[in-house]
């Protein structure tokens, strides 16, 4: 099968639970050859399988460094923790997922997220309720301090009101964001930690944040 950037564009177009909002052709067109559809499906499933077989360590930064390995860990509202779900998107062939970052005050019990419908906004409520039929994961960044995590959360909040970024391979723009780009940029711009893997070229897939050497699983809902 010919490797096609079109396949990758379609999965990223569906990222972050894409709705039916119209998008200009110039914003989503891609021309280079890259991945097969099978490559994408297999890669996504491998990441999910690894995450589902791993024992979460719990939020060690919030527990004075103590590790509590358990079947699921415990949900945390600590500022800057990364949230990911395997929720399906518009393209049934792909399982694209969605990512957000736990918000800092004054956005209590909220995550900062980028969605096609309303751009960057705080979204309130536990993800176990919001995505009750899906897998939900939380990841921490290994090399950062609690203060650095909080700074990443505050940085994400300063992006509230910005539009959705449909140019998925342009992750260096800061006037628009898609979900996993927002989370990646929050740590890249504040702590200088790259939590991407570059397995998708210059695009940032939500599941990259799960497979990054810079992150660790602290919670899984099932």
UniProtKB/TrEMBL annotation:
Residues 1-25 form the signal peptide. Coiled coil: none annotated. Gene3D superfamilies: endopeptidase domain like (from Nostoc punctiforme). Keywords: Signal. SUPFAM superfamilies: Cysteine proteinases. Pfam families: Peptidase_C92. This is Putative exported protein.
